[in-house]
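Researcher: Next entry in the queue.
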Amino acid sequence: MTIGKYLRWKDENGNEFRPVSLTGTELLNDRTLNKSTAFSYEEREDFQLTGLLPPKVQTFDDQLNRVYDGFRNASTDIEKYLFLRALQDRNETLFYALVSRHVEEMTPIIYTPTVGKACQEFSHRYQKARGLYVTQDNVDQMSDLARHFQGKDIKIIVVTDSQGILGLGDQGVGGMGIPIGKLSLYTLGAGIHPAHCLPIALDVGTDNQDLLDDPMYLGVPRKRMRGEEYKQFIQKFVHEVKRNFPKAVLQWEDFSKSNAFDNLSEYEEYLPSFNDDIQGTGSVVLAGILGAVKIKNETLVDQTYVVYGAGAGGVGVADQIFAGLLKEGCSHTAAREKIFVLDSQGLVFEDREGLDEYKKRYAKPRSLAQGWQTEHESKVSLTELINNHPVTVLLGTSGIGGAFKAEHVQKMMEYTKRPMVFPLSNPTANCEALPEDIYQWSEGQAIVATGSPFDNVNYNGREYRIGQGNNVFIFPGVGLASIVAQSTKVTMDMFTTASYALADEVSQDDLDKGCVYPRISELRNVSITVAKRILANIKATDPHHQLPETDIEQELAHYMWEPVYLPYRRV
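Model: Structure for this entry, 571 residues:
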Protein backbone atom coordinates (compact mmCIF):
# COMPACT_ATOMS: atom_id res chain seq x y z
CA MET A 1 0.00 0.00 0.00
CA THR A 2 1.20 3.52 -0.78
CA ILE A 3 1.62 6.31 1.74
CA GLY A 4 -1.03 8.36 -0.02
CA LYS A 5 -3.66 5.66 0.45
CA TYR A 6 -3.07 5.65 4.18
CA LEU A 7 -3.26 9.40 4.77
CA ARG A 8 -7.02 9.67 5.22
CA TRP A 9 -9.80 7.09 5.12
CA LYS A 10 -13.51 7.28 5.94
CA ASP A 11 -15.59 4.58 7.59
CA GLU A 12 -19.14 3.65 6.65
CA ASN A 13 -20.45 6.54 8.77
CA GLY A 14 -18.24 9.10 7.07
CA ASN A 15 -15.83 9.43 10.01
CA GLU A 16 -12.25 10.13 8.99
CA PHE A 17 -9.42 8.03 10.37
CA ARG A 18 -5.97 6.78 9.50
CA PRO A 19 -5.19 3.06 9.39
CA VAL A 20 -1.89 2.31 11.17
CA SER A 21 0.01 -0.96 11.53
CA LEU A 22 2.94 0.15 13.73
CA THR A 23 2.80 -0.29 17.50
CA GLY A 24 4.83 0.59 20.60
CA THR A 25 8.17 2.32 20.24
CA GLU A 26 8.14 1.83 16.46
CA LEU A 27 5.04 4.02 16.29
CA LEU A 28 6.51 6.62 18.67
CA ASN A 29 9.69 6.77 16.60
CA ASP A 30 7.86 7.27 13.30
CA ARG A 31 7.91 11.04 12.76
CA THR A 32 4.98 11.03 10.32
CA LEU A 33 2.71 9.05 12.69
CA ASN A 34 3.84 10.03 16.18
CA LYS A 35 1.26 11.97 18.24
CA SER A 36 3.32 11.76 21.43
CA THR A 37 1.31 12.86 24.48
CA ALA A 38 -1.83 13.38 22.34
CA PHE A 39 -2.46 9.66 21.82
CA SER A 40 -5.88 8.97 23.35
CA TYR A 41 -6.32 6.40 26.11
CA GLU A 42 -8.00 4.08 23.61
CA GLU A 43 -5.13 4.47 21.11
CA ARG A 44 -2.58 3.82 23.85
CA GLU A 45 -4.31 0.55 24.57
CA ASP A 46 -4.80 -0.46 20.94
CA PHE A 47 -1.23 0.37 19.87
CA GLN A 48 0.64 -0.98 22.92
CA LEU A 49 1.68 2.48 24.15
CA THR A 50 0.58 2.10 27.75
CA GLY A 51 3.47 2.97 30.04
CA LEU A 52 5.57 4.41 27.21
CA LEU A 53 4.13 7.93 27.62
CA PRO A 54 3.37 10.17 30.62
CA PRO A 55 -0.13 9.35 31.90
CA LYS A 56 -1.88 12.61 30.99
CA VAL A 57 -3.36 12.93 27.50
CA GLN A 58 -2.73 16.37 26.05
CA THR A 59 -4.78 18.19 23.45
CA PHE A 60 -3.18 19.36 20.21
CA ASP A 61 -3.39 22.94 21.52
CA ASP A 62 -1.64 21.90 24.74
CA GLN A 63 1.21 20.47 22.69
CA LEU A 64 1.39 23.54 20.48
CA ASN A 65 1.62 25.82 23.51
CA ARG A 66 4.36 23.65 25.02
CA VAL A 67 6.55 23.54 21.94
CA TYR A 68 6.03 27.25 21.24
CA ASP A 69 7.28 27.99 24.74
CA GLY A 70 10.31 25.84 24.00
CA PHE A 71 10.95 27.74 20.78
CA ARG A 72 10.68 31.13 22.47
CA ASN A 73 13.02 30.03 25.26
CA ALA A 74 15.83 29.26 22.79
CA SER A 75 18.22 32.19 23.08
CA THR A 76 19.75 32.34 19.57
CA ASP A 77 18.47 31.80 16.04
CA ILE A 78 20.63 28.71 15.55
CA GLU A 79 19.26 27.23 18.80
CA LYS A 80 15.73 27.96 17.58
CA TYR A 81 16.60 26.21 14.31
CA LEU A 82 17.91 23.15 16.14
CA PHE A 83 14.82 23.10 18.36
CA LEU A 84 12.50 23.11 15.34
CA ARG A 85 14.56 20.52 13.46
CA ALA A 86 14.45 18.20 16.50
CA LEU A 87 10.67 18.65 16.66
CA GLN A 88 10.40 17.92 12.94
CA ASP A 89 12.39 14.72 13.39
CA ARG A 90 10.13 13.35 16.09
CA ASN A 91 6.65 14.69 15.20
CA GLU A 92 6.12 16.26 11.79
CA THR A 93 2.43 16.95 12.29
CA LEU A 94 3.14 19.05 15.36
CA PHE A 95 6.09 20.75 13.65
CA TYR A 96 4.05 21.90 10.65
CA ALA A 97 1.07 22.91 12.77
CA LEU A 98 3.39 25.07 14.89
CA VAL A 99 5.16 26.71 11.95
CA SER A 100 1.87 27.32 10.10
CA ARG A 101 0.64 29.31 13.10
CA HIS A 102 3.82 31.39 13.29
CA VAL A 103 4.87 31.65 9.64
CA GLU A 104 6.45 35.11 9.73
CA GLU A 105 8.32 34.36 12.95
CA MET A 106 9.59 30.91 12.01
CA THR A 107 10.19 30.95 8.24
CA PRO A 108 13.45 32.93 8.66
CA ILE A 109 14.53 30.25 11.15
CA ILE A 110 13.78 27.11 9.14
CA TYR A 111 15.16 28.69 5.97
CA THR A 112 16.99 31.90 5.07
CA PRO A 113 18.82 33.44 6.73
CA THR A 114 19.34 30.99 9.64
CA VAL A 115 19.73 27.88 7.48
CA GLY A 116 22.98 29.32 6.15
CA LYS A 117 24.60 29.11 9.57
CA ALA A 118 23.11 25.64 10.04
CA CYS A 119 24.84 24.51 6.84
CA GLN A 120 28.14 25.98 7.98
CA GLU A 121 27.92 24.16 11.32
CA PHE A 122 26.28 20.98 10.01
CA SER A 123 29.04 18.53 10.96
CA HIS A 124 29.25 19.91 14.49
CA ARG A 125 25.48 20.00 15.07
CA TYR A 126 24.30 16.88 13.21
CA GLN A 127 21.31 15.30 14.97
CA LYS A 128 19.41 12.66 13.03
CA ALA A 129 19.32 11.03 9.60
CA ARG A 130 16.99 12.57 7.02
CA GLY A 131 17.10 12.20 3.26
CA LEU A 132 19.65 10.61 0.99
CA TYR A 133 23.40 11.21 0.65
CA VAL A 134 24.62 10.18 -2.80
CA THR A 135 28.36 9.82 -3.43
CA GLN A 136 30.58 8.47 -6.16
CA ASP A 137 30.81 5.24 -4.17
CA ASN A 138 27.07 4.62 -3.87
CA VAL A 139 25.46 6.28 -6.93
CA ASP A 140 25.40 2.90 -8.72
CA GLN A 141 23.52 1.44 -5.74
CA MET A 142 20.68 3.97 -5.75
CA SER A 143 18.14 1.24 -6.37
CA ASP A 144 19.13 -0.29 -3.04
CA LEU A 145 19.16 3.11 -1.34
CA ALA A 146 15.73 3.95 -2.75
CA ARG A 147 14.21 0.95 -0.99
CA HIS A 148 14.35 2.92 2.25
CA PHE A 149 11.66 5.17 0.76
CA GLN A 150 8.32 4.51 -0.89
CA GLY A 151 9.68 5.23 -4.38
CA LYS A 152 6.36 5.67 -6.16
CA ASP A 153 5.16 7.93 -3.37
CA ILE A 154 8.00 10.44 -3.68
CA LYS A 155 6.47 13.44 -5.44
CA ILE A 156 9.13 16.12 -4.98
CA ILE A 157 12.91 15.90 -4.65
CA VAL A 158 15.19 18.82 -3.81
CA VAL A 159 18.84 18.10 -4.56
CA THR A 160 22.03 20.10 -4.06
CA ASP A 161 25.72 19.52 -4.64
CA SER A 162 26.34 22.28 -2.06
CA GLN A 163 28.73 24.34 -4.19
CA GLY A 164 26.73 27.58 -4.16
CA ILE A 165 24.95 27.60 -0.79
CA LEU A 166 23.15 30.95 -0.52
CA GLY A 167 25.87 33.61 -0.52
CA LEU A 168 28.21 31.37 1.45
CA GLY A 169 29.70 29.22 -1.31
CA ASP A 170 30.89 25.63 -0.96
CA GLN A 171 29.58 23.99 2.22
CA GLY A 172 30.26 20.36 1.33
CA VAL A 173 27.93 17.83 2.88
CA GLY A 174 26.53 20.57 5.12
CA GLY A 175 24.49 21.78 2.18
CA MET A 176 21.90 19.13 3.09
CA GLY A 177 20.29 21.81 5.25
CA ILE A 178 19.06 23.49 2.06
CA PRO A 179 16.96 20.60 0.62
CA ILE A 180 15.56 19.89 4.08
CA GLY A 181 14.56 23.53 4.49
CA LYS A 182 13.14 23.87 0.99
CA LEU A 183 10.98 20.78 1.39
CA SER A 184 9.66 22.11 4.69
CA LEU A 185 8.43 25.10 2.72
CA TYR A 186 6.81 22.84 0.11
CA THR A 187 4.78 21.27 2.88
CA LEU A 188 4.07 24.57 4.61
CA GLY A 189 3.08 26.38 1.42
CA ALA A 190 1.63 23.74 -0.89
CA GLY A 191 0.56 21.08 1.60
CA ILE A 192 2.68 18.34 0.05
CA HIS A 193 2.85 15.62 2.70
CA PRO A 194 6.34 15.24 4.19
CA ALA A 195 6.36 11.54 3.29
CA HIS A 196 6.15 12.57 -0.38
CA CYS A 197 9.29 14.73 -0.08
CA LEU A 198 12.91 13.60 -0.41
CA PRO A 199 15.97 15.80 0.30
CA ILE A 200 19.16 14.67 -1.44
CA ALA A 201 22.74 15.85 -1.00
CA LEU A 202 25.20 14.96 -3.75
CA ASP A 203 28.50 14.71 -1.91
CA VAL A 204 31.00 15.21 -4.71
CA GLY A 205 33.70 16.52 -2.37
CA THR A 206 34.45 20.09 -1.35
CA ASP A 207 36.98 22.79 -2.17
CA ASN A 208 36.37 24.42 1.21
CA GLN A 209 39.73 23.82 2.88
CA ASP A 210 38.38 24.67 6.32
CA LEU A 211 36.01 21.72 6.01
CA LEU A 212 38.69 19.38 4.72
CA ASP A 213 40.93 20.34 7.65
CA ASP A 214 38.13 19.80 10.20
CA PRO A 215 38.39 16.34 11.84
CA MET A 216 34.64 16.55 12.58
CA TYR A 217 33.67 17.03 8.92
CA LEU A 218 31.07 14.41 7.94
CA GLY A 219 31.45 14.55 4.17
CA VAL A 220 33.75 12.83 1.68
CA PRO A 221 37.23 14.25 2.43
CA ARG A 222 38.31 15.00 -1.14
CA LYS A 223 38.49 17.93 -3.52
CA ARG A 224 35.36 18.59 -5.53
CA MET A 225 34.62 16.44 -8.57
CA ARG A 226 34.82 18.38 -11.82
CA GLY A 227 34.73 18.08 -15.61
CA GLU A 228 33.77 14.82 -17.25
CA GLU A 229 33.86 12.92 -13.94
CA TYR A 230 31.22 15.28 -12.54
CA LYS A 231 29.05 15.10 -15.67
CA GLN A 232 29.05 11.30 -15.63
CA PHE A 233 28.13 11.29 -11.94
CA ILE A 234 25.19 13.66 -12.54
CA GLN A 235 24.05 11.57 -15.51
CA LYS A 236 24.01 8.41 -13.38
CA PHE A 237 22.15 10.21 -10.62
CA VAL A 238 19.44 11.60 -12.91
CA HIS A 239 18.87 8.24 -14.58
CA GLU A 240 18.53 6.57 -11.18
CA VAL A 241 16.06 9.23 -10.04
CA LYS A 242 13.87 8.62 -13.06
CA ARG A 243 14.05 4.85 -12.56
CA ASN A 244 13.46 4.75 -8.81
CA PHE A 245 11.25 7.80 -8.28
CA PRO A 246 9.20 7.87 -11.50
CA LYS A 247 6.53 10.30 -10.25
CA ALA A 248 8.91 12.87 -8.74
CA VAL A 249 9.56 16.44 -9.79
CA LEU A 250 13.25 17.27 -9.32
CA GLN A 251 14.35 20.68 -8.07
CA TRP A 252 18.02 21.58 -8.53
CA GLU A 253 19.21 23.83 -5.71
CA ASP A 254 22.37 25.84 -4.99
CA PHE A 255 24.60 24.47 -7.72
CA SER A 256 27.41 26.67 -9.04
CA LYS A 257 26.29 28.97 -11.84
CA SER A 258 27.80 26.94 -14.71
CA ASN A 259 26.60 23.58 -13.37
CA ALA A 260 23.21 25.10 -12.60
CA PHE A 261 22.63 26.02 -16.26
CA ASP A 262 24.27 22.88 -17.66
CA ASN A 263 22.24 20.47 -15.51
CA LEU A 264 19.01 22.30 -16.19
CA SER A 265 19.44 22.41 -19.96
CA GLU A 266 20.74 18.83 -20.14
CA TYR A 267 17.89 17.18 -18.25
CA GLU A 268 14.80 19.42 -18.34
CA GLU A 269 13.42 17.36 -21.24
CA TYR A 270 14.38 14.04 -19.65
CA LEU A 271 12.41 14.41 -16.42
CA PRO A 272 10.25 17.16 -14.91
CA SER A 273 12.80 19.41 -13.25
CA PHE A 274 13.68 23.03 -12.62
CA ASN A 275 16.31 25.14 -10.93
CA ASP A 276 14.87 27.42 -8.27
CA ASP A 277 17.95 29.68 -8.20
CA ILE A 278 17.43 30.40 -11.90
CA GLN A 279 13.70 30.08 -12.56
CA GLY A 280 12.21 30.61 -9.11
CA THR A 281 14.32 33.71 -8.50
CA GLY A 282 13.46 35.10 -11.92
CA SER A 283 9.77 34.48 -11.38
CA VAL A 284 9.55 36.14 -7.98
CA VAL A 285 11.51 39.18 -9.19
CA LEU A 286 9.28 39.60 -12.23
CA ALA A 287 6.28 39.51 -9.89
CA GLY A 288 7.79 42.35 -7.85
CA ILE A 289 8.43 44.39 -10.99
CA LEU A 290 4.83 43.80 -12.10
CA GLY A 291 3.67 45.19 -8.77
CA ALA A 292 5.99 48.18 -9.08
CA VAL A 293 4.77 49.13 -12.56
CA LYS A 294 1.22 49.06 -11.16
CA ILE A 295 2.35 51.59 -8.54
CA LYS A 296 3.93 53.74 -11.27
CA ASN A 297 0.94 53.30 -13.61
CA GLU A 298 3.38 52.18 -16.29
CA THR A 299 4.19 48.90 -18.07
CA LEU A 300 7.10 46.46 -18.23
CA VAL A 301 7.91 47.83 -21.68
CA ASP A 302 8.39 51.34 -20.29
CA GLN A 303 11.37 50.27 -18.13
CA THR A 304 15.11 49.79 -18.65
CA TYR A 305 16.54 46.98 -16.52
CA VAL A 306 19.95 46.48 -14.94
CA VAL A 307 20.76 43.13 -13.37
CA TYR A 308 23.86 43.54 -11.21
CA GLY A 309 25.27 40.04 -10.81
CA ALA A 310 25.40 37.44 -13.58
CA GLY A 311 25.25 34.20 -11.62
CA ALA A 312 22.43 31.68 -11.85
CA GLY A 313 19.99 34.01 -10.09
CA GLY A 314 20.93 37.09 -12.09
CA VAL A 315 20.62 35.48 -15.51
CA GLY A 316 17.44 33.77 -14.34
CA VAL A 317 16.03 37.20 -13.47
CA ALA A 318 17.00 38.50 -16.91
CA ASP A 319 15.37 35.47 -18.57
CA GLN A 320 12.10 35.99 -16.73
CA ILE A 321 12.00 39.73 -17.44
CA PHE A 322 12.58 38.83 -21.10
CA ALA A 323 9.65 36.37 -20.96
CA GLY A 324 7.45 39.03 -19.34
CA LEU A 325 8.34 41.58 -22.02
CA LEU A 326 7.47 39.07 -24.76
CA LYS A 327 4.14 38.35 -23.05
CA GLU A 328 3.36 42.08 -23.12
CA GLY A 329 4.03 42.39 -26.85
CA CYS A 330 7.72 43.26 -27.06
CA SER A 331 9.75 41.78 -29.91
CA HIS A 332 12.71 39.53 -29.06
CA THR A 333 15.18 42.18 -30.18
CA ALA A 334 13.50 45.05 -28.33
CA ALA A 335 13.20 42.95 -25.16
CA ARG A 336 16.90 42.10 -25.12
CA GLU A 337 17.82 45.74 -25.71
CA LYS A 338 16.04 46.70 -22.49
CA ILE A 339 18.06 44.31 -20.28
CA PHE A 340 21.62 45.03 -19.14
CA VAL A 341 23.62 42.43 -17.19
CA LEU A 342 26.81 43.17 -15.24
CA ASP A 343 29.25 40.74 -13.67
CA SER A 344 32.57 41.18 -11.87
CA GLN A 345 34.09 42.58 -15.07
CA GLY A 346 31.37 45.15 -15.62
CA LEU A 347 28.78 45.32 -18.37
CA VAL A 348 28.73 42.10 -20.38
CA PHE A 349 29.87 42.74 -23.97
CA GLU A 350 29.71 40.36 -26.92
CA ASP A 351 33.41 40.56 -27.73
CA ARG A 352 34.65 39.57 -24.29
CA GLU A 353 37.10 36.68 -24.50
CA GLY A 354 35.98 33.48 -22.77
CA LEU A 355 32.43 34.74 -22.15
CA ASP A 356 30.27 32.12 -20.40
CA GLU A 357 27.68 30.61 -22.72
CA TYR A 358 24.73 31.47 -20.48
CA LYS A 359 25.65 35.18 -20.48
CA LYS A 360 25.85 35.53 -24.26
CA ARG A 361 22.12 36.10 -24.79
CA TYR A 362 22.32 39.39 -22.87
CA ALA A 363 25.75 40.53 -24.05
CA LYS A 364 25.79 43.98 -25.68
CA PRO A 365 27.60 45.12 -28.81
CA ARG A 366 30.69 47.16 -28.01
CA SER A 367 29.35 49.94 -30.24
CA LEU A 368 26.63 50.64 -27.65
CA ALA A 369 29.18 52.35 -25.39
CA GLN A 370 30.70 54.53 -28.08
CA GLY A 371 30.64 58.11 -26.86
CA TRP A 372 30.03 57.11 -23.22
CA GLN A 373 32.18 58.69 -20.56
CA THR A 374 34.10 55.76 -19.00
CA GLU A 375 37.41 55.42 -17.18
CA HIS A 376 38.47 52.32 -19.12
CA GLU A 377 37.57 51.79 -22.75
CA SER A 378 37.10 48.04 -22.31
CA LYS A 379 35.02 48.11 -19.14
CA VAL A 380 31.77 49.79 -18.11
CA SER A 381 31.03 49.86 -14.38
CA LEU A 382 27.59 50.08 -12.76
CA THR A 383 28.09 53.77 -12.06
CA GLU A 384 29.15 54.45 -15.64
CA LEU A 385 26.22 52.52 -17.08
CA ILE A 386 23.70 54.45 -14.98
CA ASN A 387 25.41 57.76 -15.82
CA ASN A 388 25.21 57.06 -19.54
CA HIS A 389 21.91 55.20 -19.98
CA PRO A 390 18.39 55.88 -18.62
CA VAL A 391 18.10 53.03 -16.11
CA THR A 392 14.78 52.77 -14.23
CA VAL A 393 15.10 49.33 -12.59
CA LEU A 394 18.17 48.24 -10.57
CA LEU A 395 18.24 44.61 -9.41
CA GLY A 396 20.99 43.26 -7.16
CA THR A 397 21.97 39.59 -7.40
CA SER A 398 25.71 40.02 -6.85
CA GLY A 399 26.14 38.99 -3.24
CA ILE A 400 28.22 42.16 -2.70
CA GLY A 401 27.04 44.02 0.38
CA GLY A 402 26.78 47.79 -0.09
CA ALA A 403 27.29 47.71 -3.88
CA PHE A 404 24.43 50.18 -4.50
CA LYS A 405 25.29 53.78 -3.66
CA ALA A 406 23.44 57.06 -3.26
CA GLU A 407 24.82 58.29 -6.60
CA HIS A 408 23.20 55.35 -8.41
CA VAL A 409 19.74 55.97 -7.01
CA GLN A 410 19.91 59.74 -7.36
CA LYS A 411 20.99 59.48 -11.00
CA MET A 412 18.11 57.07 -11.68
CA MET A 413 15.72 59.71 -10.33
CA GLU A 414 16.71 61.92 -13.24
CA TYR A 415 15.16 59.27 -15.51
CA THR A 416 12.11 58.34 -13.44
CA LYS A 417 10.31 59.79 -10.42
CA ARG A 418 10.05 56.36 -8.82
CA PRO A 419 13.04 54.12 -9.48
CA MET A 420 12.79 50.43 -8.64
CA VAL A 421 15.71 49.33 -6.46
CA PHE A 422 15.71 45.67 -5.41
CA PRO A 423 18.82 44.58 -3.44
CA LEU A 424 18.03 40.87 -3.55
CA SER A 425 21.17 39.08 -2.35
CA ASN A 426 21.12 36.77 0.68
CA PRO A 427 22.01 36.63 3.51
CA THR A 428 21.45 40.10 4.94
CA ALA A 429 25.17 40.95 5.08
CA ASN A 430 25.36 40.47 1.29
CA CYS A 431 22.44 42.80 0.53
CA GLU A 432 23.51 45.44 -2.03
CA ALA A 433 21.94 48.26 0.01
CA LEU A 434 19.85 48.71 3.12
CA PRO A 435 16.22 49.74 2.51
CA GLU A 436 16.52 52.62 4.97
CA ASP A 437 19.40 54.07 2.97
CA ILE A 438 17.56 53.72 -0.34
CA TYR A 439 14.57 55.65 1.01
CA GLN A 440 16.87 58.39 2.29
CA TRP A 441 18.75 58.63 -1.02
CA SER A 442 15.48 58.82 -2.96
CA GLU A 443 13.56 60.98 -0.47
CA GLY A 444 11.08 58.14 -0.04
CA GLN A 445 10.32 57.82 -3.76
CA ALA A 446 12.09 54.54 -4.60
CA ILE A 447 10.13 51.30 -4.79
CA VAL A 448 12.13 48.84 -2.72
CA ALA A 449 12.10 45.08 -2.30
CA THR A 450 14.73 42.79 -0.80
CA GLY A 451 15.72 39.13 -0.79
CA SER A 452 16.24 38.96 2.98
CA PRO A 453 13.61 39.94 5.57
CA PHE A 454 13.84 43.52 6.86
CA ASP A 455 11.82 45.42 9.46
CA ASN A 456 9.57 48.25 8.37
CA VAL A 457 11.29 51.57 7.67
CA ASN A 458 10.07 54.93 8.94
CA TYR A 459 11.07 57.85 6.75
CA ASN A 460 9.78 61.41 6.92
CA GLY A 461 6.75 60.40 8.99
CA ARG A 462 5.74 57.53 6.74
CA GLU A 463 6.10 53.79 7.40
CA TYR A 464 7.23 51.56 4.55
CA ARG A 465 6.75 47.78 4.67
CA ILE A 466 9.67 46.07 2.94
CA GLY A 467 8.41 43.35 0.64
CA GLN A 468 10.59 40.25 0.60
CA GLY A 469 11.16 38.74 -2.85
CA ASN A 470 11.27 35.25 -1.44
CA ASN A 471 11.21 32.32 -3.88
CA VAL A 472 8.90 30.56 -1.44
CA PHE A 473 6.05 32.49 -3.07
CA ILE A 474 6.78 30.63 -6.31
CA PHE A 475 8.28 27.15 -6.03
CA PRO A 476 5.67 25.43 -3.81
CA GLY A 477 2.86 26.38 -6.20
CA VAL A 478 4.90 25.46 -9.29
CA GLY A 479 5.83 22.11 -7.74
CA LEU A 480 2.27 21.35 -6.69
CA ALA A 481 0.89 22.22 -10.13
CA SER A 482 3.52 20.03 -11.79
CA ILE A 483 2.59 17.10 -9.56
CA VAL A 484 -1.16 17.50 -10.07
CA ALA A 485 -0.80 17.92 -13.84
CA GLN A 486 1.69 15.02 -14.05
CA SER A 487 3.86 17.35 -16.11
CA THR A 488 6.63 15.81 -18.17
CA LYS A 489 8.40 19.19 -18.33
CA VAL A 490 8.41 22.22 -16.06
CA THR A 491 8.25 25.08 -18.56
CA MET A 492 9.24 28.74 -18.58
CA ASP A 493 5.58 29.57 -19.19
CA MET A 494 4.69 28.02 -15.82
CA PHE A 495 7.03 30.46 -14.09
CA THR A 496 5.73 33.43 -16.09
CA THR A 497 2.19 32.47 -15.14
CA ALA A 498 3.32 32.17 -11.51
CA SER A 499 4.78 35.70 -11.65
CA TYR A 500 1.50 37.22 -12.76
CA ALA A 501 -0.45 35.17 -10.20
CA LEU A 502 1.83 36.34 -7.38
CA ALA A 503 1.61 39.97 -8.50
CA ASP A 504 -2.18 39.75 -8.35
CA GLU A 505 -1.99 38.56 -4.73
CA VAL A 506 -0.54 41.89 -3.56
CA SER A 507 -3.31 44.01 -2.07
CA GLN A 508 -4.00 47.57 -3.20
CA ASP A 509 -3.28 48.66 0.37
CA ASP A 510 0.23 47.21 0.13
CA LEU A 511 0.78 48.77 -3.29
CA ASP A 512 -0.32 52.13 -1.91
CA LYS A 513 2.41 51.74 0.70
CA GLY A 514 5.02 50.96 -1.96
CA CYS A 515 5.18 47.25 -1.13
CA VAL A 516 5.24 44.77 -4.02
CA TYR A 517 5.00 41.41 -2.21
CA PRO A 518 2.41 39.88 0.13
CA ARG A 519 3.28 38.90 3.68
CA ILE A 520 4.90 35.53 4.27
CA SER A 521 1.93 34.71 6.51
CA GLU A 522 -0.17 34.55 3.30
CA LEU A 523 2.04 31.78 1.89
CA ARG A 524 -0.59 29.03 1.76
CA ASN A 525 -3.12 31.18 -0.09
CA VAL A 526 -0.46 32.47 -2.48
CA SER A 527 0.76 28.93 -3.24
CA ILE A 528 -2.78 27.77 -4.00
CA THR A 529 -3.35 30.75 -6.29
CA VAL A 530 -0.09 30.11 -8.16
CA ALA A 531 -0.94 26.42 -8.61
CA LYS A 532 -4.51 27.19 -9.73
CA ARG A 533 -3.37 29.70 -12.34
CA ILE A 534 -0.75 27.33 -13.74
CA LEU A 535 -3.24 24.46 -13.94
CA ALA A 536 -5.87 26.68 -15.57
CA ASN A 537 -3.29 27.76 -18.15
CA ILE A 538 -2.33 24.13 -18.81
CA LYS A 539 -5.98 23.22 -19.33
CA ALA A 540 -6.45 26.13 -21.71
CA THR A 541 -3.29 25.70 -23.79
CA ASP A 542 -2.29 22.03 -23.73
CA PRO A 543 -4.68 19.72 -25.62
CA HIS A 544 -2.80 16.69 -24.29
CA HIS A 545 -3.05 17.60 -20.60
CA GLN A 546 -3.70 14.84 -18.05
CA LEU A 547 -5.97 16.89 -15.78
CA PRO A 548 -9.44 15.60 -14.93
CA GLU A 549 -12.47 17.70 -15.79
CA THR A 550 -13.19 18.29 -12.11
CA ASP A 551 -12.92 21.72 -10.50
CA ILE A 552 -9.24 22.74 -10.14
CA GLU A 553 -9.68 23.76 -6.52
CA GLN A 554 -11.17 20.37 -5.67
CA GLU A 555 -8.31 18.62 -7.45
CA LEU A 556 -5.72 20.66 -5.50
CA ALA A 557 -7.47 19.93 -2.21
CA HIS A 558 -7.10 16.22 -2.92
CA TYR A 559 -3.32 16.62 -2.98
CA MET A 560 -2.91 19.02 -0.04
CA TRP A 561 -2.27 17.82 3.50
CA GLU A 562 -3.27 19.66 6.67
CA PRO A 563 -1.20 19.08 9.84
CA VAL A 564 -3.89 17.72 12.15
CA TYR A 565 -4.19 14.50 14.12
CA LEU A 566 -6.68 11.96 12.83
CA PRO A 567 -7.99 9.08 14.95
CA TYR A 568 -5.91 5.93 14.39
CA ARG A 569 -7.31 2.47 13.80
CA ARG A 570 -5.08 -0.55 13.93
CA VAL A 571 -4.71 -2.69 10.83
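Model: Residues 348 and 355 are 8 Å apart (CA to CA).
Researcher: Noted, moving on.
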